Task: structure prediction
Amino acid sequence: MTLLSTNITTAEFEEILTCYPALIRDISDSKARTTKGDSLEDLDEFRFKIAPAKYNRKKDGKDDDAHILPLEKVDVLKLVTWKLKHGTFRPKLMQLAASNSEKDITRTTSEAYQTYRGDHSNAFKAVKLLTSLKGIGPATASLLLSVHAPADVVFFGDEVYQWICCGGQKKSIKYNLKEYQDLLTRSRTLAERLRVDASDVEKVGFVIMRGSSTLTQQHIHSFDPAKENMASDLKMHEMGEGITPSPPLPKKSKRSASRTRPAESASTTSKRLRRDKKS
Result:
C-alpha cells in the first residue's frame, strides 16, 4: 500500500509532517553554496509564519474580513523568491513580478482577498484575479492567496499536486487553472477527512515526493509498535517513486558471533593448552 492522499492515516500524516523542517534545512544547506540572499530555511519561516501572521484573514481564530490587509510589493517578491528556491528556478519570473507597481499589487490583492472572504468555493475566483498581475500564474497566485487563508487554501506546488492529483507519480504539470481547481477539490477532501490545515497538506506532499529515504525512515522507527506496518508501506512507496530505499543493516558474521560465546572454564582452558602443545 502506497502512502497516497486517499489512504494516508492521521498518524502517518502527522509523523511525515514532522520530517518537513529537517528536509527544508537539508535543501537550504545544499543551496547555500550556489545561491545568494536569504536562505530557503529563512524564507520558509517567512512563508509559513511571518507572512500568514501579517495577512491572515483570521485574527485570534476569528474571521476579520473588515481589516483585510492587501499584500505589499516587498512581501510579494519575497514569496516569489521562496517559490523559486523551494521549487523549480525560473529566472524570468522574478523580473516579471518585480515589474508590477505597488499600486497594482495593492489593488489586485485587495480585490482577490475581498472576493475570497473565507468561502472555499471562491478560492478559484480569487486565484484567477491574482493572475492578472504580471508574472503571476496560477501557482504563484495560489501562494499569494494561501498566506491570506493558510488553513483553507493550498499552494499549487509541484510535489503536492503530483501526490494528490497524480497518484504519487512525477508527471508533467501544465500549471493551468483547471489543474489548480482539481488540486483545490482533492486537497479539501483530504483536509476535511484528517481535520488538518491546507498548509500542512502541502508540507506532507513535499516530504513524500522530495524527502530522502533516510530522513523519513528515522521518523518511522519512532512510531508506536501498533503502527509498525508503516515502514513497509513507505518502502513500497519509495520504490514506486524512484527513491533508493535505505540499505539493510549488515548481518553479524560468524566470527563476530563467536566472540560473544561464554568464557571457558579453567579446566577446559588447561586441557586445550595441553592439546595445542601436542599439535
